[in-house]
Amino acid sequence: MRVESISFKNYRNLAELTLEPCEGVNIIYGNNAQGKTNIIEALWLFCGGHSFRTQSYRELIAFDKSFAHLECAFFGQERRQTASITIEPAKRLIKINGVEKKTSAALIEKFCAVVFSPENLSLIKRGPAERRNFIDSAICREKLRNALTLQRYNRLLKQRNALLKDIPKNEALRPTLDLWDEQLSTLGAEIVTQRLEFTRMISEKAAVYHRGISRGSEELSLRYVSSFGASENDSRAELKQKFLEKCKANYQNEIFTGSTASGAHRDDIEILINGKNSRFFASQGQQRSAVLSLKLAEASVLRERMGEDPVILFDDVLSELDNDRQDYLLNELKGCQVFITCCEKSNKEQLNEGKVFYVEGGEVTELRVE
Ligand code: ATP
Ligand code: MG
Q: For burial by CB atoms within 10 Å, which of 51, 76, 183, 243 has the most?
C-alpha cells in the first residue's frame, strides 16, 4: 500500500497544499509547531476517520474556516484508488473512488497504516484500556467486521450496565439479564478470539524486533490477561461459556455496583521485558524501544494478514534514539512506504534514498536529497 498524493485544504495550519511522497522513506522535517504532526494525523484519518490526538472534529478545521478537506490518491488492493474526507464541525463526508459512504468505517480495509506518535508511549505505563486499544485498533484496521463487533459489544455493555442500575428499582427486570448476557458473551468471545490471535502474533514478532533494537540484551513478550479466565487455546464456544459463567457468578455484586465486572472490556495485555511487567519497571528508553518494537510487529502482522504493507507513520520517533538505533529502524522499514517527522537536521542527512519535505508555518517545500 502506498500514498501517491495527499492534498490538504483548511486542515489545521495546512491551508492549501499537495504532497507527492515517494514509495520509500519520506522525511518531514522542520522546527516545532510548523505542521509536521498535522500531516501525519491527516494521513492516519484515512484508516477509519479518527485522529490519534483528538475526538473533536472542530479542532481539525483551520481556526477561521468552516470545513476542512483532505484528498488522497493511493495504491492498494492492486489498483489506484482515491478517498476524500470533508470535515465539518458536526459531521464528516467520506468518498471512496468518487462514491459517497455512510460512515467513515467504509475506509477500513481500503487504506491501512500503522502510526507511532509520542502519545503511544503511554501504552506501557497507563492502565489496561491503552493496551486493549492497541490490540483493538489493529484488529479493527484488519477487518471491518471486527470494528462492527466491537462497536456492538460496547453498545450492549452500556445497555447492560443501565439495566443493572434499574434492577434494584424494578426486580421484574432481573430475568431479562439472561438475554443481554447471551448476546454480550457471543460478541465478547468473538473479540477475545481475535485479540488472542493478534497478541500471540505480535508477541512473536515484537520479540525479534526488540532483540535487534536492544542488541540482544532484552526479551520482550506479550501476555493476554483475561478477566474471565480465557486462555490462548480456548475455542470460541469455550470463551463464550467462560464469559457467561463469570456473568452469572457476578450478578449480585454487579447489581450492587451497577457495572459489568468482567469481560472483554476488563482484560489487559501485559508487556513483559525480561519476564518483568514493563508497566512497573521499564525505564524511559526501554518504554520507547518496547513501543517501537510493538509498532514494527503490528505492521508486520497486518502485512501478513492483509497481504500488503501498511503505510508507516512515525511521528517524532527518532529524537531519543542513538545513531545505531536510528539506523536499525530506518533499515527495518525498507520495502514499506514510510513517513517520518523530525526536527534534527542530521536525520535528513542520514537518508540515502527518499524524499525530504521541509515544513514551515504550514507550507511544505520538497528538498533535494544530495
Ligand atoms: P512539533 O515538532 O513540536 O511536534 P509539529 O510541526 O509537529 O511540531 P503540529 O502539531 O503539526 O506541529 O502543529 C503545528 C501548528 O498547527 C501549531 O502551531 C498549532 O497551533 C497549529 N494548529 C493546530 N490546530 C489548528 C487549527 N485548527 N487551525 C489552525 N492552526 C492549528
Ligand atoms: Mg509534532
A: 243
Give the C-alpha separation, 85 to 11, whole Å: 11
Model confidence pLDDT, tens digit, residues 248-273 = 999 899 999 999 999 999 999 999 99
- Looking at the structure, give the CATH architecture of the domain made up of residues 122-307: Up-down Bundle (1.20)
Centroid of ligand 2 to alpha carbon of 37 (angstroms): 4
Thinking of the domain 1-112+309-370, which architecture would CATH place it in? 3-Layer(aba) Sandwich (3.40)
> Looking at ligand 1, which residue's alpha carbon is closest to its atom 12?
33
Q: In whole angstroms, what separates CA 363 from the centre of its chain?
A: 28
160 close to 180: Cβ distance less than 8 angstroms? yes
- Is ligand 1 within 6 A of the CB of residue 63? yes
**Residue 343 alpha carbon to ligand 2 centre in Å:** 9
The atom of ligand 1 lying closest to the CA of 41 is: 11
Domains in the chain: boundaries: 1-112+309-370, 122-307
Per-residue burial over 108-124, b = 16 or more CB atoms within 10 Å of its CB, e = otherwise: bbbbbbbbbbeebbebb
